[in-house]
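RECORD TYPE: inverse folding
INPUT: structure tokens
STRUCTURE:
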């Protein structure tokens, strides 16, 4: 693994580590995915359920519009919807406006937050009546899908397909867990380990509305932190919503930058 940042590094140094490991030199994030350089961007492509999109770009005011057009043509030829994952410090400063002018739709802004695994609590227990069940097969994925559809709205089937493919082809890169109230799934989350980096990333973290505010989310963070520690990860990263950001801050996560998904429909 890389060891780019010293302990206690300020946030700008940690952001540089994140950019270098997770974006500039990103590897495919799952089965069927390919990462390729094209001009001044790094993109991932692949058939569904692979995430298609732009991971990194190094553009200028004079090159941005042509590069955006080139990527639109490329993904259109593939027939794929894709995401340009824009970060607040990306250049040029008006890149978001240029993407909107090219037909991209901005989704809600999120905060990129990072914590050192060694600084996070590991002994957070789920509230009374809740048990945490590892997800390892199709039945577990079905439970996760039920939770996410209830927490975020319909549309989690593709995430389930991708998770099943990871379990089969690269199980060491993914951990998933569902919180159960008896036999009822009420919360679920997953974590992905990124080979060649010091990072693991947290995803999902969805809890049914009537079960929020009871400490289940914190227990799911601790569960995944324990796995990250066992696998030698140094950092945990999450794209945090407004709802989860205060909880993550209290646990020790620090904000690095903002990110906005810009979606170009097929």
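DESIGNED SEQUENCE:
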């Amino acid at each position: 693994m890389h060891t780019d940042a010293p302990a206690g590094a300020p946030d700008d140094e940690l952001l540089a580590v994140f950019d270098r490991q997770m974006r500039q030199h990103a590897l495919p994030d799952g089965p069927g995915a390919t990462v390729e350089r094209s001009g001044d961007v790094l993109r991932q492509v692949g058939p569904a359920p692979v995430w298609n999109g732009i991971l990194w770009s190094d553009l200028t005011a004079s090159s941005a519009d042509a590069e955006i057009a080139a990527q639109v043509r490329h993904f259109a030829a593939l027939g794929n919807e894709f995401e340009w994952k824009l970060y607040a410090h990306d250049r040029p400063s008006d890149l978001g406006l240029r993407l909107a002018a090219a037909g991209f739709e901005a989704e809600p802004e999120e905060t990129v937050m990072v914590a050192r695994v060694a600084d996070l609590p590991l002994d957070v227990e789920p509230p009374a009546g809740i048990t945490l069940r590892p997800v390892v097969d199709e039945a577990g994925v079905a439970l996760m899908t039920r939770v996410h559809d209830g927490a975020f709205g319909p549309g989690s089937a593709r995430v389930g397909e991708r998770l099943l493919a990871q379990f089969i082809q690269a199980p060491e890169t993914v951990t998933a867990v569902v919180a159960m109230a008896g036999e009822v799934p009420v919360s679920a989350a997953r974590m992905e380990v990124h080979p060649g980096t010091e990072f693991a990333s947290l995803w999902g973290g969805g809890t049914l509305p009537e079960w929020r505010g009871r400490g289940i989310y914190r227990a799911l963070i601790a569960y995944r932190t324990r796995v990250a520690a066992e696998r030698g990860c140094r950092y945990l990263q999450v794209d945090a919503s407004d709802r989860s950001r205060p909880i993550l801050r209290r646990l020790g996560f620090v904000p690095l930058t903002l990110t906005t998904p810009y979606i170009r429909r097929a």
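NOTES: Residues 64-78 form the longest helix (15 residues).
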